[in-house]
Amino acid sequence: MVVNVAIVGVGLVGSEFIAQVIATQSKKIAVVAVANSRQFLTSPTPLTASWKTDLDSSSASKAFTLDSFTASLAASKATNPTVVLDCTSNETVAAYYPTWLESGFHVVTPNKKAFSGDLSLYKKIKEIANGAPGAPLVYHESTVGAGLPVINTLNDLINTGDKITKIEGIFSGTLSYIFNNFSTLDASAEPVKFSKVVSVAKDLGYTEPDPRDDLNGMDVARKVIILGRVAGLDLTQETVNVENIVPEVLRSLSSEEFMKKLPEFDNHFEQLNKEAIQNGQVLRYVGLVDPVHGKSSVTLARYPASHPFASLKGSDNIIAFTTERFPSPLIIQGSGAGAAVTAFGIYSDILKIADRTQQ
Amino acid sequence: MVVNVAIVGVGLVGSEFIAQVIATQSKKIAVVAVANSRQFLTSPTPLTASWKTDLDSSSASKAFTLDSFTASLAASKATNPTVVLDCTSNETVAAYYPTWLESGFHVVTPNKKAFSGDLSLYKKIKEIANGAPGAPLVYHESTVGAGLPVINTLNDLINTGDKITKIEGIFSGTLSYIFNNFSTLDASAEPVKFSKVVSVAKDLGYTEPDPRDDLNGMDVARKVIILGRVAGLDLTQETVNVENIVPEVLRSLSSEEFMKKLPEFDNHFEQLNKEAIQNGQVLRYVGLVDPVHGKSSVTLARYPASHPFASLKGSDNIIAFTTERFPSPLIIQGSGAGAAVTAFGIYSDILKIADRTQQ
Fold first, then answer.
1. Which residues of A are designated catalytic?
2. Domain of life here (chains A, B) (predicted)?
3. How far apart are the first and last CA of chain A?
């Protein structure tokens, strides 16, 4: 018996996941439905490599609504455990999870919205997917650090009764890249201006179309909220203190004007960097969950050369769990963005559901 | 329904596991049997905090043999999924896993012997615990890096079709401690003699009673073999190249004589260290699985200051998985020894079995 997978959202990540499943000839997973925002396609047999053409051109494709898509999965669910995989970043799709779960579907997603938005939605999801035997399953490893084993490790710590003292990390590949390059103790590195690093990151496609959507810390805040909630804290956008590093006067400009004016603030960032370097430290943009002091935040902080955050490279993510059992923290680092590693996290999650529904 | 757990070996790790289960009032796990090398105790109800006294004094305790212990678990297995937890480091117990698995027990263990010894035993175990629906389950997270999510992450990479290019790490808390202290680029650190670091590590209880059992690399080799096998390689003691750093003339001495003579080789280690430091590098004792070149080894190697292995602290373990999807490696680090974190790995493994047998 296989687990059927119905995918909403077939952009880079959704497509890569299907490619990985096809390439590995998985005996445990069959992709039986795909949907974009306009139409969807369901199939009684596993979809093949031609799924994209079929979805776009097939006369079998139907107009997409969440309700019509869900209704079309009734036959799948009657035969096999069925996972809805949400590869959108859409809030409306996230709000639909309770409906899927109550109808007996499992949910897997890299979409952060359900876990970092409205707290009542999150609680409703946890209430239905409550871990009781037979209850539907929700996995969202790829919402933080893509495929890095972050959420599953945190769940293992919590479920075995460890006490979390602190969760601290660099959760944005973009901001990792920017500060790893801007702020370094490596004397052989060529000094660069902050605006230049941002502009290179933008050209490399590492930033959002408007880099202020990275620099304002909102994406990192979402990850802090997710980690905090998994750790049992009722975090919301209101209770996480976010240091927006976009200079105030640049916040209301057009995206183009912002990039043009950013160099005027190079001195500001250079000053911060100089103060750090003079103390043998580097600047890193970090998210913090602090259950002990009840303070969770996103800040531009300093770390000494010997700290693992200081030697981070490229656009890697890093996360450190300090707990009762791990006073010297359990640290996980590596690539935390990109289709291949995000799809890996999704694939692992779905295999866990396959294993849990087939024993 | 709970998962019943029958424990063979109730030393530090076994006792700590029971303490964690009792402290967390687990609703998923019931410890129903405990055994030491002399006797065992089974109970129709979950064992309580008085288990140790009961095992030692109870008239219900019976003489231990693997067969009699197993026979006494028939009632448990008839009622609930039952895990045999091997907390010994015994080879004979490891050789019994196929018998347990063929009788329908699941196996969880931090005992390295079955996974790093006789290859035919390993293959037999994998043949029975083959992942098919209904097949018995084997989890051994704590055989490498204690509770660090090493084996489960490697399994996730493999099961989703990633290609492992290299697995490299510091897998011995003892050798981590010794070289983190002996070889450092931190100019403010007081220089120490190699024999002194070994002797301090011994006094702290970090080493085996005879430190040569750490310095000979055999324990690290076992971990390399385990990781290699999980990654699909047929590694054995014969195919892993191990650099025994115990000077040859000290190998046949008594343990006492060894400690007395080791200072005569301080110059040898100091010379190695000086060569590294002059090149901006440090010495680290690492295990390597290299599927690409078919070379797996344990060696005293050098790493530059910017490498994550160079900034390791205390007795932490670290492991780096370089794969097709993670060309910049996925790295996990933290405490890799001690009862609390080893029991954490065991507890997580058993919860996974609980989840897989109760859906």
1. 223
2. Eukaryota
3. 10
